[in-house]
Target: LysR family transcriptional regulator
Amino acid sequence: MFVDSLLDLPQLRTFYTLVQAGSFTACAGRLNRTQSAVSHAMAKLENQTGVTLLARRGRTLGLTEEGRRLYQACEQAFATLDAAADDLRRHQTLAKGRLRVGATLEFGSSILMKHMQPFLAANPDLEIDFTLDHELLGPLLRDDLDLIIDCLEHPLPTLKKSPLFRETYVVACAPGFRKAHRLRVPADLSSGPVLSLDKAGAWWNRFLMAVPDREQPQLDHIIAVNHIRAMIHAAIEGMGALLVPRYSVLEELQRGALVALFPAIRPTEDRFSIYQKKVKAGQEKQRLLTRYLQGLSPEEFGS
Amino acid sequence: MFVDSLLDLPQLRTFYTLVQAGSFTACAGRLNRTQSAVSHAMAKLENQTGVTLLARRGRTLGLTEEGRRLYQACEQAFATLDAAADDLRRHQTLAKGRLRVGATLEFGSSILMKHMQPFLAANPDLEIDFTLDHELLGPLLRDDLDLIIDCLEHPLPTLKKSPLFRETYVVACAPGFRKAHRLRVPADLSSGPVLSLDKAGAWWNRFLMAVPDREQPQLDHIIAVNHIRAMIHAAIEGMGALLVPRYSVLEELQRGALVALFPAIRPTEDRFSIYQKKVKAGQEKQRLLTRYLQGLSPEEFGS
DNA sequence: ATATGACATGAGCTAAATTCATGTTTGTGG
DNA sequence: CCACAAACATGAATTTAGCTCATGTCATAT
Model:
């Protein structure tokens, strides 16, 4: 029944916090969980051990004798582990020197800048230069850059590629625009203007290919804007619907300036990767930055 | 980035085992995981802490200075926790006295008996009587039984109900029978005999109701057998297809004496619950048995 | 009595951990 | 020196475990 360790570590941590907090609700608060989660966890712990640990006396929470002993063990064990964690943090190898980073314009100016601050703060002896451009491979090979973040494939044997995140695309528009044009399904896009990076509307192909034949819209009314940021502002003003990488409009979606359309349609994704010369990828400063960026991955990139 | 504890406890346990085992593959063996799982876990641990812990020197596994310190902390912390776990196990409150348990015939004689041994062994001072019958509520209310396990609903305010498991049904037959009658879809059942608890075939309604109209079989050739165990033996001999609770044929399915048919069809499930008088549910012996049975839950019941 | 606060419960869902299939690196024997 | 094998890494798909939501129960206060 108990395969490896008799005690389930996450549950113990919950138990430990619960005793300190004094109530399920308070414990849930500290752990950023709901009261329900704490309750489930404690029920499971008591079942797995087969021992009653908590004495629910009406509205006050007590411990059984066994619970008290377990708490003491937790106190000691977690103190040890937390000390070890602090120790690790202090001994985190710090990057130093100079690092020249390249990235695509849109990604670099939004997401990358937004997340570099903590890394810079943690590594005060590191100086970073950013170069935002579309042509990144050349400078990398010429050693004008040490590390680039790009969504193009560069399959060269001298380069080390580290996947960073998948760029997902969204169709979005201003809330008022959706209402005015009654946008419910992709076909409804025929009725209003759409914003495109190019005049011909090829920009939208990525989306159209993901739409089932039945619902294909006719994109007749195209407004070309050759700059993504400008396109976003145009969309916010209600000039039309747009298709952009989700990361570029994370903030607008959150505060409601734009609303995402047709979540069921999933356009093909691009993959952003970090590229570095293999010979230099081993350097501490490069390794640390790579690791830091990969550590962000969840939905910080909107994927 | 690290919300609660800086160190992810399950990953630490993996790290600890890895160092002891000396290799990823060996560690995976001890933890009943794959090598890949260990690799993923360690990669994540090193990323989250931002510290290199393992020195992969070719074919031998070493530790960095930080890794060594972390291992020592683990050693101490886990020793404490394991000791606490042992302590808990020793102080597990034991049931004693006499407990009269009732259960339905089929469930009691198969699954229940199969799983009671460990509980009895762990509680030598407990004497248990089993009563297997279909009429269980009366004896419970009359205090001839202390605790019953039943799939009927007994919504009485004086009773405490504890859900135990969901009884799923399967259609099955002998492998030869399936071949002989070419059973591919439910409609194929028309071509051969089916076993039923009752002569009229109402026993099969539970299944028929889950079959889409298009595929409804005509159950003309019904062989009535008024006992489930006998029905199972009949099916093994190739006398027909049967419909039974999955738990009653777990063993036969495993060793291939019977094969499950139409896994896509999901007949409605019954729920087995433990019922006890509320006034007696608080007693240690009743609580412990309830907890033990609920702890089994996974697929021990075939659901 | 009824309302209120605190925990329990179940179903459904989401996110994380695991596995599968495959690639990469390092040491070994031909 | 090259091919091979052993040990770990990686990505994608899948499974599982844990969380949340909605609701129920119970004890205490009004």
